[in-house]
Amino acid sequence: MLIVPEREIADLMTREAAFDAVEKVFAAMAAGDAYNFPVVREAIGHEDALYGFKGGFDRAGLTLGLKAGGYWPNNLEKRDLINHQSTVFLFDPDTGRAKAMVGGNLLTALRTAAASSVSIKHLARKDAKVIGMIGAGHQATFQLRAALEQRDFEKVIGWNYHPEMLPNIEKVAAEAGLPFEAVELDGMQEADVIISITSAFAPSLMADHVAPGTHVACMGTDTKGKQEVEADLLARAAVFTDEVAQSISIGEAQHAIEQGLIKEADIAQLGAVINGTHKGRTSDDQITLFDGTGVGLQDLAVAASVVDLAVQKGIAIEVDF
Ligand code: NAD
Q1: Per-residue pLDDT at 81
Q2: Does residue 205 contact residue 228 with C-beta atoms inside 8 Å?
Q3: pLDDT per residue over 239-267, tens digit each?
Q4: Residues 6 or more apart in contact with residue 154 via CB below 8 angstroms
Q5: Which residues does residue 132 pair with via DSSP β-bridges, in sequence order?
Q6: Are 64 and 57 in contact (CB under 8 A)?
Q7: Which residue has its alpha carbon closest to ligand 1 atom 12?
Q8: Are residues 236 and 156 part of one domain?
Q9: N or C: which terminal CB in the chain sees fewer CB atoms within 10 Å?
Q10: Is 151 found in the same domain as 101?
C-alpha cells in the first residue's frame, strides 16, 4: 500500500491536475460510468465533531474508495490544528485490497475550487470581466485563485458577513494583479461571475442582486438546512449541479425544491455539459447557477492523481500491508 502524507500534497498537487481530475470525473458521472455512494455524516457526540464518509466508484478511471473525515470545531483553539480533517483511502477495484492512503485536507480545498472552476469554464459567458466573491474564509481563497484562471477577469469584488475577513480575498486579487473592491450585496449586480462559499444557514445573495447573464457558483451549501442564496434565484436560473440527488437534499436546491419553485427535472448535471449532451448556457442574458455540493468521487479523483504524481517523484511511502 502507498501512503501520501498531508505534508507532501502542497508540493505535489497543482490546480491544473485538480481541475483535470474533477472535470473528467464529472463527465464520467454524467455518462453513467461513475457513481457516488450514499453519504454518511454523523454528529458523534464528542468534541462537537461531525464525522462521515463519502465514497464511490469510477469505472472509467478505475478509482474505488472513500474519504473519511469531517469537522472538529475545537481543533484550532485547543490543538492548533485545522478544523476540517480528512483522509482518502483508495482500493484496487479488481481485488478490493487497500491501495493508497492520502492526506485529504488540502485536496478537499483544491477539488472544491476545481469544481466551481469547471462550472465557470463551461457555463460563464466568455467575456466575463468582474468576479464577485461572497465569503472570505479558508475555502474562498482557493476558489478565487482557481476561478481567476478561467476568464480574463479585470476586477474582483467581495462581500462577507464578517467584513474584517475580506483582506483574505483582497490578497488573492492583489497576487493576480487585479483591483479589489468591497461592496454591499446589491453591488454584486456588477459581477459576471459570483462564487458563494460560506457556512450560512440563511440566504445572503437575493435574486435581485444578480444581473442577467451572470454565472453563480454556490459552493458553501453541503448540508441540510444550509443556504446561501434566495430560492427565487434558482427559479430564475438554469440550474446545474455535480450530483442531482445531493443538490435536492443537501445542496442549495433543497430550498427551491421544498418551496415548489423548481422540480428535480429542472436540474442538470454539469458533466452533461462537459460531455456535450446538454447545451449548457443558451444565451448571454441567461443566469446559470452551479450547485456544488461536493461528491466523494471528486476526492477520489484528486487523490488518485496525487498518488500518480507521488509515485513519479519517488515520494510515495510504500508499506507492506
Ligand atoms: P470558514 O469557516 O473558513 O469560512 C466561513 C465563511 O462563512 C466566512 O466567510 C464567514 O464570514 C461566512 N459566514 C459565517 N457565518 C455566516 C452567516 N451567518 N452568513 C453569511 N456568511 C457567513 O469555512 P470554509 O472552510 O471557507 O468553508 C465554507 C463553507 O464551504 C462551509 O459551509 C463548508 O462546509 C463548505 N464546503 C463545501 C464544499 C463543497 O464541496 N461544496 C467543500 C468544502 C467546504
Answers
A1: 92
A2: yes
A3: 999 999 999 999 999 999 999 999 999 99
A4: 129, 130, 178, 179
A5: 157, 194
A6: yes
A7: 198
A8: yes
A9: C
A10: no
Cell of 263: 422540480
C-alpha cell at 17: 491536475
d(CA 189, CA 194): 10
Residue type, 258: E
pLDDT 10s digits, 176-221: 999 999 999 999 999 999 999 999 999 999 999 999 999 999 999 9
Please report which helix (H) or strand (E) contains residue 173, including its range: helix 167-175
Q: Residue 102 has what DSSP assignment?
A: E
Specify the 3-state DSSP secondary structure of 202: strand
Please identify, by atom number, the ligand 1 atom nearest to the C-alpha of residue 134. Answer: 9
DSSP SS3 for 70:
strand
Domain harbouring 237, CATH code: 3.40.50.720
Please choose from 51, 139, 188 the residue to mutate so as to test ligand 1's pocket, defined by most ligand atoms within 8 A of CB: 139
The dihedral over CA atoms of 143, 146, 147, 150, expressed in degrees to the nearest 10, equals -170
| Overall domain count for the chain | 2
Report whether 218 contacts 228 (CB < 8 A): yes
Respond yes or no: is residue 67 known to be catalytic. Answer: yes
Give the pLDDT of residue 266. Answer: 98
Q: How remote is the C-alpha of 16 from its chain's centroid?
A: 15
Q: Which amino acid, 193?
A: V
Q: Which residues line ligand 1 (CB under 6 A)?
A: 108, 112, 135-140, 160-162, 165, 197-200, 204, 219-220, 222, 292-294
CA-to-CA distance for 149 and 177, rounded, in angstroms? Answer: 13
Nearest CA to ligand 1 atom 37: 220
Structural domain that includes position 58 = 2-108+297-318
The identity of residue 192, as a single letter, is D
